Amino acid sequence: MTSLTLKRARPDWSGIAFAVILTLVIIGPLVVVATWAFTEVWRYPNIIPQKFGFRFWGQTLGRPDVWNALMLSLKLSTVVTLLSALICLPAAYAFARMKFPGRDILFFSFLAGHAFPKFGLLVAIAAIFLQLNLIGTFWGVVLIQLVGTLMFMIWIPVAAFQAVDKRMEEAARDVGASPLRVFWSITLPQAGPTIFAAVLLSFVGTFYETEGAWLIGAPGIRTMPVLMISYINNQMVIQYGAVLSVLLWVPSFIALMFARRVIGGGAFARGFGG
Amino acid sequence: MSEFVERAVSVPAETAAGRRPIGLLLVAIPVFLVIWLVIWPAINAISRTIWRTDADGNSSFDLSSYAFFFSDRYSLDNLAITLWTTLVCAVLLLVICLPIALYLRFSHGRLPAYVQALAILPMFVPSIILAFAFIRVLGPNGMVDILLNAVGLPKIRTPYLTPWGPVIGLVWDNIPLTVLILLSGLGSVANQSIEAARDVGANTLRVFWHIILPRISNSILVALSFSVLGIFSSFTLPYLLGPASPEMLGPFMQRTLRDVQDPIGAMTQAVVAFGFCILFGLFYVRSVAKNRGK
């Protein structure tokens, strides 16, 4: 790398162009939203707000609909993630370590959801939920979001279990460790971080899931993103939406950066068929 | 759960006991969910829209909901705007992401790392926040208007609530995965083959056309299939940023199902969407499965 930079003294113009354009187009809008969140007065032709302040944070957080939506979203995401872990992790272990009839075709069956345009499939599911009276209910939304986590929660842990060195497990068993002990002391610590990342991803993904919650949950179930939709549609005080955006985005960004680091960029792209 | 694991682990790997149906038992619930909530709804939507029950309770083969869709001016306009949006987004994504991916593949250092981080960032921005940011930047009296006004230029004609609104939002949203998939495809282009072509006098364009493009054509198709599947039936961004009429299929289906309360009509629209995407869907699934099978 150093020899390359020595040889190439002229500046990397295309890189600079990409960096400048992408900074403006990608970071720019986020900075504007963040600025709005800390603004008390910003009238049209001024380039920077007339008055900064935290007044709208207190107002936004004081709204009961915000608290209800936040609590509901956290509850939904927790229930969906726990259920998903409960049913998917044993299945992932079975796919990684056991032989059973139909293993391969069942493994790839989780791809079926990706063969359809997503919202079309949601509408088809909603038509079934209409007959089952699941529309507008908590468990209807849980089911639809649970389906959305399945592929992540099976494929990533399968890769994690497969990456565990079988010889270490066998060695532990040879010196007399019980199978549960082997699973607890050898398999889990090695597969753990990746599995944790998958769990984190499905929690964050469920928290922000908008389309299923809107289609199945309305009008009874108002999650955080659904509340944001109504804030945007009704053009209420601009700062409410901005404060919610900043509040909701920062933690998930940290969580997702962490998850991506664990999974690795290359594997991530391959998981999407790259 | 733990006794399942215990029994599973206690089976010696080499014996035929490993083929016991315990594995099937462990995967049963997720597989059941896929069948009940992915495969069955798709079949159900198709069968209920072509095998209709009339007022007397007799069911018969009946394509009238499709006949209505394809003769109704409003439905056809919605379909047209959906196809237009998908096509424009696909072309824009390719034009924007291919140069970024090529640049990232053939450069090293801190600047490319920064460019890559930026290109991947939209993946971590939920589309609802993107929609809000879009309105604050490109909406009426948004940041762009403020800046133009400051330098004495007229305001822009805002793309908010026009067909270009969803296009801009969807392209922004789909940049990360398109770049990642293209970049992963470019990984298979060997440096030596490019140097060899350079040595015999090929210029940059010829190297791209004859050496790089044939090797990444599959990745381009995968990236396009993925974005087409997502964009064709996208809901949040068209609903918040697009015009009310004509509307894209996503908001159209939602309105038909929940506001007009016409499940048959909504399912017909969904099946039409399946039909337009089937080739992309099958191609995408095949590519992922092939990748995974390696």
From TrEMBL, chain A:
Membrane topology recorded in Swiss-Prot or TrEMBL: Multi-pass membrane protein
Gene Ontology process terms (BP): transmembrane transport
Gene3D superfamilies in the record: MetI-like
Sections of the chain in a coiled coil: none
Pfam families documented for this protein: BPD_transp_1 (PF00528)
Family annotation (InterPro entries): MetI-like (IPR000515), MetI-like_sf (IPR035906)
Keyword hit for Transmembrane helix: yes
Domain of life: Bacteria
Location(s), subcellular: Cell inner membrane; Cell membrane
GO cellular component: plasma membrane
Segment forming the signal sequence: none
Sequence similarity: Belongs to the binding-protein-dependent transport system permease family.
Listed PANTHER family: INNER MEMBRANE ABC TRANSPORTER PERMEASE PROTEIN YDCV
Name assigned to this protein: Putative spermidine/putrescine transport system permease protein
UniProtKB/TrEMBL annotation, chain B:
Native source organism of the sequence: Rhizobium wenxiniae
A Pfam family matched in the record: BPD_transp_1
Domain ABC transmembrane type-1: 79-289
Cellular component annotations (GO), alphabetically ordered: plasma membrane
Membrane topology type: Multi-pass membrane protein
Family: Belongs to the binding-protein-dependent transport system permease family. CysTW subfamily.
Entries under SUPFAM superfamilies matching the protein: MetI-like (SSF161098)
Record's keyword annotation contains Transmembrane: yes
Protein name: ABC-type spermidine/putrescine transport system permease subunit I
Main location: membrane
GO BP annotation list: transmembrane transport
Compartment annotation: Cell membrane
Keywords from the named record: Cell membrane, Membrane, Transmembrane, Transmembrane helix, Transport
TM region(s), chain numbering: 21-43, 81-104, 111-135, 164-183, 220-244, 264-285
